[in-house]
Design a protein that fits this description.
The protein is an alpha/beta fold. It contains twelve helices and eleven strands.
């Protein structure tokens, strides 16, 4: 296993994390460490989630990934796992912040997810390789989940759950906090509903989520001069992340050569990235 150690002050040490009150001295990484410098949104919640919560976490993570944003979570069972899987299924990138050494799989049932994130995303921990899942590790690692992220989305959580700890840390760090309203009859909805009562922004429409987070393709396109035709291509890629250049040309009604040229221009503008033959918003 190739474990990379990134010290504070290194080029790859994430600047957002460096500005929290107690940043970790070093990060142990397996996978694509360049993701530490990407724009991130955290999606977290309870281990004992409902089917609705699992669905919501996957859908939210997929929408975030479709906007070219990295999804951060804790690779715990339940909501965290659903968020990682939703992101990966949308062709996005994800960071798992572990409460163990980066060479440990916890829970053991997440072996396949661990391997997939190592191959397609990034596993990161401040704990030494070989360190096991001590109870105090998980509340401590939550400050890294929020510290890496520009915003945190809480899907389900009881009033004293780890996801509520993450929400509190996010607020202390000056991050935006969003919450998915839950069934008032369910204990694991009490924490998120209280967050909304206390001022967190409720997510009531998944179609509006990117705009609420400020990451929708339209708002990103407005930050660079683009033509009407280029905006159309950005919208098509946002709806079908991972599509090929040929599929994009067909969907836009353009010749393959013209579509390829426009994609190249959008890459130069920093609005589109390619992974092999797959296209994603940058």
């Amino acid at each position: 296993m190739n474990i990379r150690v990134i010290e504070r002050g290194d080029r790859l040490y994430p600047p957002l994390l460096a500005r929290i009150s107690d940043p970790p001295a070093r990060l142990y990484c397996v996978g694509d460490a360049e993701l530490l410098g990407s724009e991130c949104v955290a999606v977290v919640g309870t281990r004992r989630c409902s089917p609705y919560g699992r669905w919501a976490a996957g859908e939210i993570a997929g929408r975030v990934a479709a906007c070219g944003i990295t999804v951060v979570s804790g690779m715990a069972a339940g909501i965290d796992s659903a968020a990682h899987l939703g992101c990966l299924s949308a062709g996005g990138k994800t960071i798992a912040v572990l409460g163990t050494g980066v060479d440990q799989v916890f829970p053991k049932s997440n072996r396949r997810l661990y391997d997939r994130i190592a191959a397609e995303g990034l596993l990161v921990s401040e704990f030494e390789p070989g360190d096991g899942p001590l109870p105090w590790h998980f509340p401590q690692r939550n400050r890294i989940i929020s510290g890496l992220s520009r915003a945190a989305v809480i899907v389900e959580g009881a009033e004293k759950s780890g996801s509520l700890i993450t929400a509190g840390l996010a607020l202390e760090q000056g991050r935006d906090v969003f919450a998915v309203p839950g069934n008032i009859n369910q204990p694991n909805s009490r924490g998120v509903n209280k967050l909304i009562y206390d001022g967190a922004c409720p997510i009531t429409d998944l179609d509006d989520l990117p705009r609420m987070l400020g990451i929708d393709s339209a708002s990103r396109a407005e930050r660079a001069p683009v033509s009407r035709e280029e905006k159309k291509l950005l919208e098509l890629i946002s709806f079908s992340p991972g599509m090929s250049a040929g599929d994009l040309a067909a969907a836009a009604g353009l010749s393959p050569a013209l579509a390829a040229g426009m994609v190249t221009v959008l890459e130069l503008k920093g609005l589109v990235r390619t992974d092999g033959n797959a296209l994603f918003l940058a």
